[in-house]
Amino acid sequence: MLRHITVDVAGPVRHVRLSGEPLGLAEASELRDAAESLREEREVRVVVLGSRGANFCPGADAGLDPLAVSPDPAQALDAIRAPVVAAVRGRCDGVGLELALSADIRIADEDASFCLDTVAVGALPSWGGTQRLPRTVGPATAASMVLLGERLDSDAALARSLVHRVGALDDAVDNVVDRLLGAAPLAVEQATEAMDHGVELPMHEGFRLEAELNHLLSVSEDRAEGLAAFFAKRRPVFHGR
């Protein structure tokens, strides 16, 4: 039974909502367990990670040792096969930003802000922040955020590619979810895998990974349906097979 987070089912979409309070050990563990469960649910097409409070996640509470949660929830979210959309309002600080960085798409409300200042309290980011943040915003912005504690508002986050969209949060999330649901499920899954894993590989190995995934898709029912729909000038009906 979940006490700190909620997981709501809306067809093939799962809405995972944090409490919006500083993240404690129990909530972090629940989130990790929920993410690991969602990875095994093949019918899940999109996961939306948001909050029930005014803030997405304003960091960790005093009792949370991030190293005590293994594997950590950011790693578990990153491993979900379906695309993960982070819906960020208010403060997204510390471990909260590390959770958001594990998502495939980040959407911010106009009041959102982002900070990763754990070195100010004598700690390093522990859930992948030192690795995901430079790959997302570049080394200069990452250094300013990690070493100097720079906080980015939503416009600065958009300008530095930390978020993909800024605007009315619910409408923007609904638009992204609808577009993801309209695409071929296997193609979305394989494209996510190609991007997530390919960025860690030399480019020639990334090309090989892309070719291998394309070969798998070429014999799928969804690929045949996509071609049939294109030539018939109709909307495709995909089944994830």
Describe the fold and architecture.
The chain is of the alpha/beta class and 241 residues long. It has two domains: 6-180, 2-enoyl-CoA Hydratase, Chain A, domain 1, CATH 3.90.226; 184-232, Lyase 2-enoyl-coa Hydratase, Chain  A, domain 2, CATH 1.10.12. 45% of the residues lie in helices and 15% in strands. It contains ten helices and nine strands. The strands form two sheets. Strands 1-2-3-4-6-9 form a six-stranded mixed beta sheet, sandwiched between helices. Strands 5-7-8 form a three-stranded mixed beta sheet. Strand 1 and strand 2 form a beta hairpin. Helix 8 packs antiparallel against helix 9 (203-218). The longest helix is centred in the C-terminal third of the chain and has 16 residues, at 203-218. It is globular, with a radius of gyration of 18 Å. The mean pLDDT is 90.
Main sheet: strand order: 1-2-3-4-6-9
- What portion of residues is helical? 40-55%
Q: Classify the secondary structure makeup into a structural class.
A: alpha/beta
What are the low-pLDDT stretches, counting only 5+ consecutive residues below 50?
A: none
In terms of topology, how is this protein built?
Layout: E1 6-10, E2 13-18, H1 25-39, E3 46-51, H2 73-78, E4 84-88, E5 91-93, H3 95-101, E6 105-108, E7 113-115, H4 129-137, H5 139-148, E8 152-153, H6 154-159, E9 165-166, H7 169-182, H8 185-198, H9 203-218, H10 221-232
Helix pairs in contact: 3-4, 4-5, 8-9
